[in-house]
Design brief:
The chain is an alpha+beta fold and about 775 residues long. Helices cover about 20% and strands about 30% of the residues. It has 3 domains: about 180 residues, Sandwich (Jelly Rolls), CATH 2.60.120; about 140 residues, Galactose-binding domain-like (Jelly Rolls, Sandwich); about 400 residues, Alkaline Phosphatase, subunit A (3-Layer(aba) Sandwich), CATH 3.40.720. Strands 2, 3, 4, 5, 7, 11, 13, 16, 18, 19 and 21 form an 11-stranded antiparallel sheet that branches. Strand 33 and strand 34 form a beta hairpin.
Length: about 775
C-alpha cells in the first residue's frame, strides 16, 4: 500500500540525504553538520531544503515506488550470495569485519607482500591477523569524515604489546598498551584527521614478540561502542534474507545493468530505504515497505553506484530475497551437442584487440576475413590474457590457472620459466579425450623446454629449427605447416595448435597494405621493417629506450597494421581450406593472441613493460556454431584461463577440477550477459590490473591504484582515482578480494567477484587469505 505523499516525500528525503553517510560519496550536505563539537556530532539528517540534485531525485524515487510492473524478469544478482562484498554501517558508523574474507578489500591488495591474514583463528575466533606493520584503506565521504570521533576495535593480543595507529601519515594518538586475550579498545580522533575519499590507516605493533588479531573495527562518533557492531546486519543464506537493525546499512559497489529493478520484500511497519548513488551525483532511491516490493533502477543503467539498504521505523527488519532482476526470461542454454571432431587453437602473437575492427570498431586495419568469420562465431571484446608476455599468458591458457598458481613468469621475485609437470595441460587432456594432438609455432619461447609440448603427439617449433629466437617466419609458412599436420590426421579427431608471429617484432611491412596505411612519402629508417634493436631494446624490460620522431612512430604503427591485414589474409586461406576438405562444420576454431604490443602510447614499445590494454587486451573469437551462436558479440569480461575449460566442455570431457576458469559457451548463449564481468591480468605478480565494464584499475608494488575510463580514455592517460570515488571503490573491492584469494578462486564454482554464486558465498564463509 502506498503511503500518504507527505510521509513518502519525507522518507525519500531521508533516503537521499542519508546517502551522504555512505562512504566514498560526498555531495554537498556540509551545512547539516554545522560546527558541532566532536562529542555532539551526528550522522547527516534531514534539512528543510535538500540539495538541488536531491530534489530532482525525489520525483524519480517516488515514481519508482509505484508497485510491481507486470513484466517477465529473472534474477541477475543476489545480495545475500554477494554478502562478502557488503560494507557495513551500524548507526551510520562504518564497521570492518575482520572475520570475513571480504576484509581483503581494505588491505591495499597485499602489496608488496601480504600484511594481513584474514579468516584465521585466534583465541577461538575468526579474525584478521596483522603483521607488526599493516595498513588498511577505508573510504569516507567528506561529511562522514568530519563526524567520526573515534576508532574502536576488538583486538586479541599478548600482554606487553602496544599498538600505535597512524592515519594519513600522522599518529592518531598515543600508543595503546594491550592486555592478554580479546579486548575492546577505543582511540579518540581529533577533528580533521580523516578526509574525503580513501583514508590510510597504519597499525604498528611494538613490544615483545607477537602480533595482533582484529575481530572488528568501527569508526564512530565517540562513546562506548556496541559489544559487537556486526550484529546489526545478519545474512541468512538458507532463507535468502538479511536481518538489519534500525539505522543500520549495507552498501554494495556495483554496476547497474540495463532494465534492472531492485526487488525485495519486508513485513510489518518496517521500511527499507534503497539508495543508489554515482560519483557524479546521479541518484535513484525509494522505499521497500508493505506492498511496495521493487525500485526501478533503469535511470541508472550502466552507472557504477554505491547501493545502500537501510532499515527505518522498526527495531529490526528482515529483507526477503533481495536481488536485482532484469527484463526477460532466464537465458536458455542449448542442449549438449555432439563434440567437434577438430579443435584448432590459433595464437596470433602480439596482436592487439584495439587494432582489429572486429574487436574494436573503427580500427584502421582491413580485416575482411575476421569480419566474415565473426558472422558465424562469437566475438569476445573484453578478453584479457593473464600476462603481458608469451610464457605467462600461454601457461594460463595451457593449464586454466592464474599466474599465482602456475608460477610461470620471467621477472619479479620467484617464478619459473616452465610449466611444472604437476599441472595438466591442454594437449594431454584432449589426448585423454581421444584426440590426436599436433602443434606448430613460430614463437621461440613456446617450446618443449617450457613444457608447452607436453601431451602433443607431435610438436614443432619452427623458430628453434632456425636456431634463433626472434627471427622472421612469415605466417604463410606456419599456416602451410599447420594445414599439413591437420591433413595428415584428418581421419581422426584432432587437436591442432599453431602460432603465427607476423605482428611480433621485427615488424615487417606487408604490401599492398603498407601503401594504404602509410601512403605519403616516408624517408625515415623504417622503410621495410622495424626492430626493437633499432629502438634501443632493453632486455630486462622487454621494451625500447629510444623514442623516435612522430613520423617514425606513425610509420611503425602502419607497418604493424599491414601485418594484421596480412595475417587476416592467411586466416581466410586457412578457413577456405577447411571448407574445401569438408570439415569446417565439424571444427571448433579459437583465434586469439598471447599479448599485444606497445607503440609509444606511454613512451615504450614492445611488450612485457606495463599492464596497459594495448598489451593485455587481445582478440578472442570462437567458431563453434553448436555452442557459440554466430554473430554474437560478448562485451562482458573473459580471460585466458577460460580457454581450456571451454575446450573440455565442448568435448564432453571430465571437468578439470584444478582449472580456475570456466567454459565460455554458456556466456555466449546469454548466461550472465548484461552483468559487468571482470577481466584480470598480472605483471610478474608484482603488479595487477582488472577491468570491469568500461572501468579499469592498475596497481603496482606501492598499492596505490590508478583508475581509468577505457571508453573515454582508451590510451589510459588520465588517472581518475581521485574524481571517481565510487568507481574506484568498486574496482578496488573486486581486485582486492580476488588478489586475496587468487590461488583458490574457481570461476566455475564460485562465479566472479562482481557476482558470486551461492556455492561461492558458502566457500567464502570459510575462506582465508594466506
Amino acid at each position: 500500500m502506498l503511503q500518504p505523499s507527505g510521509v513518502r516525500t519525507r522518507n525519500v528525503l531521508l533516503a537521499v540525504l542519508g546517502a551522504a553517510a555512505v562512504f566514498g560519496i560526498g555531495f554537498g550536505v556540509r551545512a547539516m553538520l554545522g560546527k558541532q563539537p566532536a562529542s555532539e556530532r551526528k550522522p547527516p539528517t534531514i534539512v528543510d531544503k535538500p540539495p538541488v540534485d536531491a530534489a530532482v531525485a525525489i520525483s524519480d524515487a517516488l515514481a519508482a515506488d509505484a508497485g510491481a510492473p507486470g513484466r517477465i524478469e529473472h534474477a541477475a544478482f543476489s545480495f545475500v550470495a554477494n554478502r562478502h562484498a557488503a560494507h557495513r554501517f551500524t548507526g551510520g558508523a562504518p564497521v570492518l569485519d575482520g572475520s570475513d574474507v571480504g576484509f581483503a578489500r581494505y588491505m591495499r591488495f597485499g602489496l608488496p607482500i601480504p600484511r594481513w591474514h584474514v579468516g584465521h583463528i585466534r583465541g577461538g575466533e575468526r579474525a584478521a591477523i596483522a603483521d607488526r606493520i599493516a595498513s588498511l584503506e577505508v573510504p569516507l565521504s567528506s561529511e562522514h569524515a568530519k563526524w567520526v570521533g573515534q576508532i574502536a576495535m576488538r583486538v586479541h593480543a599478548a600482554k606487553g604489546l602496544s599498538l600505535q595507529i597512524k592515519i594519513n601519515g600522522r599518529k592518531a594518538a598515543d600508543k595503546v598498551k594491550l592486555e592478554d586475550g580479546w579486548q575492546t579498545i577505543a582511540i579518540p580522533l581529533e577533528p580533521g584527521r580523516l578526509g574525503d575519499g580513501e583514508n590510510l590507516f597504519v597499525f604498528e605493533t611494538t613490544g615483545k614478540k607477537g602480533t595482533i588479531a582484529v575481530s572488528w573495527l568501527m569508526l564512530g562518533p565517540g562513546g562506548p561502542p556496541p559489544d559487537d557492531p556486526r550484529a546489526a546486519a545478519k545474512f541468512d543464506a538458507k532463507a535468502d534474507s538479511i536481518t538489519l537493525a534500525k539505522d543500520a546499512s549495507l552498501v554494495w559497489y556495483l554496476t547497474v545493468p540495463d532494465d534492472g529493478h531492485f526487488v525485495a520484500s519486508t513485513t510489518g511497519a518496517c521500511k527499507i530505504e534503497v539508495r543508489a548513488r554515482s560519483s557524479d551525483g546521479a541518484f535513484v532511491g525509494g522505499l521497500i515497505a508493505g506492498d511496495t516490493t521493487r525500485i526501478d533502477l533503469t535511470s541508472m543503467a550502466g552507472r557504477v553506484v554505491a547501493f545502500a539498504l537501510t532499515t527505518r521505523e522498526c527495531p529490526s527488519a528482515t529483507i526477503a530475497s533481495p536481488r536485482i532482476a532484469v527484463h526477460g526470461p532466464d537465458p536458455t542454454v542449448r542442449p549438449k551437442a555432439a563434440p567437434p571432431r577438430y579443435i584448432v587453437l590459433w595464437v596470433m602473437d602480439a596482436l592487439r584487440a584495439d587494432k582489429v575492427p572486429t574487436f574494436t570498431p573503427g580500427a584502421r586495419a582491413q580485416t575482411p576475413n575476421f569480419d566474415e568469420l565473426a558472422k558465424s562465431s562469437a566475438v569476445f571484446r573484453q578478453y584479457y590474457v593473464q600476462g603481458n608476455e608469451s610464457q605467462t599468458s600461454h601457461s594460463s591458457v595451457w593449464t586454466g590457472l592464474y599466474p599465482a598458481v602456475h608460477n610461470v613468469r620471467l621477472a619479479g621475485v620467484g617464478g619459473s620459466y616452465k610449466i611444472d609437470v604437476k599441472f595438466e595441460t591442454i594437449a594431454a587432456l584432449l589426448s585423454k579425450a581421444g584426440m590426436v594432438t599436433t602443434g606448430v609455432t613460430g614463437n621461440g619461447f613456446v617450446n618443449a623446454d617450457g613444457g608447452y609440448a607436453r601431451g602433443f603427439k607431435e610438436f614443432r617449433n619452427m623458430m628453434r629449427e632456425k636456431g634463433i629466437i626472434n627471427g622472421i617466419i612469415y605466417g604463410a609458412q606456419i599456416v602451410d605447416a599447420a594445414l599439413g599436420q591437420l591433413d595428415k590426421h584428418r581421419a581422426e579427431p584432432t587437436y591442432l595448435f599453431f602460432g603465427t608471429i607476423d605482428t611480433h617484432g621485427p615488424w615487417i611491412a606487408r604490401k599492398p597494405w603498407i601503401d594504404i596505411y602509410s601512403p605519403g612519402p616516408y624517408k625515415g629508417p623504417f622503410q621495410e621493417f622495424g626492430t626493437a634493436k633499432d629502438l634501443g631494446f632493453k632486455p630486462g624490460s622487454m621494451g625500447c629506450s629510444i623514442i623516435p620522431p612522430k613520423e617514425d612512430i606513425e610509420r611503425l604503427r602502419a607497418i604493424y597494421d599491414s601485418a594484421i591485414s596480412y595475417q587476416d589474409k592467411e586466416l581466410g586461406r586457412f578457413v577456405e581450406q577447411l571448407k574445401a576438405w569438408g570439415i569446417w562444420d565439424q571444427t571448433m576454431l579459437i583465434v586469439t593472441a598471447d599479448h599485444g604490443e606497445e607503440f609509444f602510447e606511454d613512451k615504450r614499445c614492445g611488450h612485457g613493460g606495463s599492464l596497459r590494454d594495448s598489451l593485455i587486451r587481445v582478440p578472442l573469437l570462437v567458431h563453434d556454431p553448436a555452442r557459440f551462436p554466430g554473430g554474437t558479440i560478448v562485451d562482458e569480461g573473459a580471460e585466458g584461463v577460460d580457454i581450456l575449460p571451454t575446450m573440455l566442455d565442448a568435448m564432453g570431457a571430465p571437468i578439470l577440477e584444478a582449472a580456475q576458469g570456466r567454459s565460455l559457451a554458456e556466456t555466449a548463449q546469454g548466461v550472465g550477459r548484461g552483468w559487468a564481468t571482470p577481466s584480470y591480468t598480472s605483471m610478474y605478480e608484482y603488479a595487477h590490473a582488472m577491468r570491469i565494464g568500461r572501468w579499469k584499475v592498475r596497481v603496482g608494488v606501492t598499492g596505490v591504484p590508478i583508475v581509468g575510463d577505457m571508453v573515454a580514455d582508451p590510451e589510459e592517460k588520465k588517472d581518475l582515482s581521485g574524481s571517481r570515488p565510487v568507481e574506484r571503490r568498486m574496482l578496488t573491492d573486486n581486485l582486492g578480494l580476488f588478489l586475496g584469494l587468487r590461488k583458490a578462486w574457481k570461476k566455475r564454482e564460485w562465479g566472479i567477484t562482481t557476482n558470486v554464486t551461492a556455492e561461492g558465498a558458502a566457500a567464502l564463509d570459510d575462506a582465508q587469505t594466506p
